[in-house]
């Protein structure tokens, strides 16, 4: 009857983990605000390190329970959990140091180690929650490489408007849909529930709860059935805070499953409705200004126009097209 308690405590981890972080950072901030031989903040510093470290213990326990009951693999959480414990130990260490010192300013530079541990442990936690490369995926590709990330492979589904019939249904439709909607939690590094949806082989392998494609009832497969649950349903996937699949993506997944989840199927052979494909067609964008090449207007001509009350400027940097407006007030006064 009370078996729900431990899973429930595990779900408190996101709440419990942020509180001690704030308290410990507050303690370090007070250290840096302390002047030499000034004990004013010392009691508050000691209390912050004590409460923050106790909170760290609770966060570690709840995190371990979440790992046990939420389907995370050990490979996914091990470093986050280990560094969480080490950070908590560091918090108690600085509490002990603050009890022995009469000058908190002497702890300034050593306490930055605690900040570094908090940042690194938090980064690992963010990676578990949001997927590998969460912080770098919004950066330009050159910056992603600089910070050790790799350009995201979760490109949205795009289809050619001509020739889409010959596309391989799984490789060029289903897998991009899974990449966009499921990759952050179900990839080779972060296999939530033991499930990896990044390849054909991983998809067929299923997860800790068994296969996600049911050969005895394809449309009952977890791959689609959990996506179609109400958003507030406990078993709905992806989680409500994540990107949700478009209705057209769900239709295309269903159609693939209706065709017995064939990995050899061509998109045209499945006969999808055209309206399911239209949102993903690549269409050439028409520029607001015409893309023409013109010889630049002589500077003396522009100068004469400006003398007569016209404002003249390029429509864009490097463009030969000009935007010309007139100030009627200036024109009237010049008359």
Short overview:
The chain has 335 residues and is an all-alpha fold. The protein is built from 13 helices and two strands; from the N terminus they run H-H-H-H-H-H-H-H-H-H-H-H-E-E-H.
What's the structural blueprint in terms of helices and strands?
Layout: H1 5-10, H2 13-33, H3 42-69, H4 74-100, H5 108-130, H6 141-146, H7 169-182, H8 200-205, H9 222-225, H10 247-258, H11 274-277, H12 299-307, E1 310-314, E2 322-326, H13 328-334
Antiparallel strand pairs: 1-2
Helix pairs in contact: 2-3, 2-5, 3-4, 4-5, 7-10
End-to-end separation in angstroms reads 93 Å
What's the mean pLDDT score? 84
**Radius of gyration from the CA trace?**
30 Å
The count of strands amounts to 2
Q: What amount of the residues lies in strands?
A: under 5%
Instruction: Name the strands of the widest sheet in spatial order.
Output: 1-2
Structural class call reads mainly alpha
What pattern of helices and strands is seen along the backbone? Answer: HHHHHHHHHHHHEEH
């Amino acid at each position: 009857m009370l078996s729900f308690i431990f899973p429930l405590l595990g779900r408190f981890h996101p709440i419990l983990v942020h509180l001690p972080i704030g308290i410990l950072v507050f303690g370090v901030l007070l250290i840096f605000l302390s002047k030499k031989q000034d004990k004013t903040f010392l009691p508050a510093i000691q209390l912050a390190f004590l409460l923050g470290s106790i909170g760290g213990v609770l966060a570690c326990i709840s995190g371990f329970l979440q790992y046990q009951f939420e389907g995370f693999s050990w490979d996914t959480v091990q470093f986050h959990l280990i560094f969480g414990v080490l950070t908590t130990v560091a918090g108690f260490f600085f509490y002990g140091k603050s009890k022995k010192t009469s000058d908190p300013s002497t702890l300034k530079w050593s306490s930055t180690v605690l900040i570094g541990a908090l940042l690194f442990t938090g980064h690992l936690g963010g990676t578990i929650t949001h997927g590998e490369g969460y912080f770098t995926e919004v950066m330009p590709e050159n910056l992603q490489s600089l910070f050790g990330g790799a350009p995201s492979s979760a490109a949205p589904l795009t289809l050619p408007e001509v020739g889409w019939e010959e596309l391989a249904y799984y490789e060029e439709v289903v897998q991009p849909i899974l990449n966009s909607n499921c990759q952050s939690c179900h990839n080779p590094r972060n296999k939530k529930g033991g499930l990896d949806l990044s390849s054909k082989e991983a998809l067929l392998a299923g997860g800790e709860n068994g296969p996600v494609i049911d050969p005895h009832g394809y449309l009952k497969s977890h791959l689609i059935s959990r996506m179609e649950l109400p958003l507030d349903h406990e078993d709905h996937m992806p989680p409500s805070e994540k990107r949700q699949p478009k209705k057209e993506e769900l239709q295309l997944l269903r159609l693939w499953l209706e065709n017995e989840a064939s990995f050899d199927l061509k998109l045209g052979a499945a006969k999808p409705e055209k309206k399911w494909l239209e949102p993903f067609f690549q269409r050439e964008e028409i520029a607001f200004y015409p893309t023409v090449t013109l010889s630049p207007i002589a500077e003396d001509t522009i100068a004469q126009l400006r003398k007569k009350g016209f404002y003249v400027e390029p429509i864009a940097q490097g463009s030969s097209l000009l935007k010309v407006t007139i100030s009627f007030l200036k024109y009237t006064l010049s008359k």
